[in-house]
């Protein structure tokens, strides 16, 4: 299943629980946990590295003898947040006095890196595109912004009425210096009670991924291959999505190829 409506990937612990096995691939995963005020959540990282990313609220992350305080944020539309990186083969506890929702962006990995704090002021914020294709990209764990073994993760804010993830692009072939193989998860939040958007993924090969989904808060779209984009925000409703990526390449890099009908790239 490539379109994952809200609740369809939930379990007794997580509002969203996407792992490599359920996604039908090898590396990328995403969990969203809701912690009540004064509550805690514990988990074993297993074979994956993870980033604890506040969607709403703040928390304290206990990892490897480290205590990492995250101020968090009021909502994903408030701005970039601080975050915590936690390594594979560790036991983690998240405690939240105020309560909140927290994304766990993960990737199966080989190296065991130390637990670390990612400050919000150090998150590179990029203005990408222009006009009706303008959007904001928060590169908190892009390949060149924060050290991980395999995980790449960014946030995108698309103003109401705009297109993002555009022009359509792909990263499903290994072509050194040109394109890298990356599995990708889009997780959506839409501003406003009745807000929605659209996500397109079109085939890059015969029998490839073909999705046109109306997305709302809490939905996800999986991109194992194919041209992805555009992501379209309903007028009057800002769209947020969290991209979680990981792949098999020796180099942790985000190399993309634009659709041949849109070789001009970002405008």
Automatic annotation (TrEMBL):
Organism (species): Streptomyces alboflavus
Keyword hit for Isomerase: yes
GO molecular function: glucuronate isomerase activity
Protein name: IolB protein
GO term, biological process aspect, one: inositol catabolic process
Swiss-Prot/TrEMBL keywords: Isomerase
PANTHER family assigned: 5-DEOXY-GLUCURONATE ISOMERASE (PTHR39193)
Pfam families named among the record's database cross-references: KduI
rRNA-binding found in the keyword field: no
């Amino acid at each position: 299943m490539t379109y994952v409506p809200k609740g369809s990937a939930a379990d007794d612990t997580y509002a969203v629980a996407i792992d490599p096995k359920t996604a039908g691939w090898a590396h990328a995963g995403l969990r969203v946990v809701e912690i009540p005020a004064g509550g805690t959540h514990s988990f074993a990282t297993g074979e994956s590295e993870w980033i604890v990313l506040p969607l709403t609220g703040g928390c304290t992350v206990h990892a490897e003898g480290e205590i990492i305080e995250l101020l968090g944020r009021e909502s994903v539309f408030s701005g970039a947040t601080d975050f915590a990186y936690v390594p594979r083969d560790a036991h983690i506890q998240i405690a939240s006095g105020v309560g909140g929702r927290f994304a766990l962006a993960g990737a199966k990995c080989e190296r065991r890196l130390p637990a670390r704090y990612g400050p919000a002021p150090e998150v590179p914020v990029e203005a990408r595109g222009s006009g009706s294709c303008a959007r904001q990209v928060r590169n908190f764990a892009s390949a060149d912004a924060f050290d991980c073994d395999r995980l790449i993760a960014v946030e995108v804010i698309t103003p109401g009425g705009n297109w993002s993830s555009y022009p359509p692009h792909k990263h499903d072939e290994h072509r050194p210096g040109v394109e890298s193989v990356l599995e990708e998860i889009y997780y959506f939040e839409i501003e406003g009670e009745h807000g929605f958007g659209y996500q397109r993924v079109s085939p890059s090969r015969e029998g490839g991924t073909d999705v046109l989904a109306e997305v709302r808060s809490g939905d996800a779209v999986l991109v194992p291959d194919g041209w992805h984009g555009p992501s379209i925000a309903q007028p009057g409703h800002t769209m947020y999505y969290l991209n979680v990526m990981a792949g098999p390449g020796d180099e942790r890099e985000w190399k993309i190829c634009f659709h041949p009908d849109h070789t001009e790239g970002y405008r």
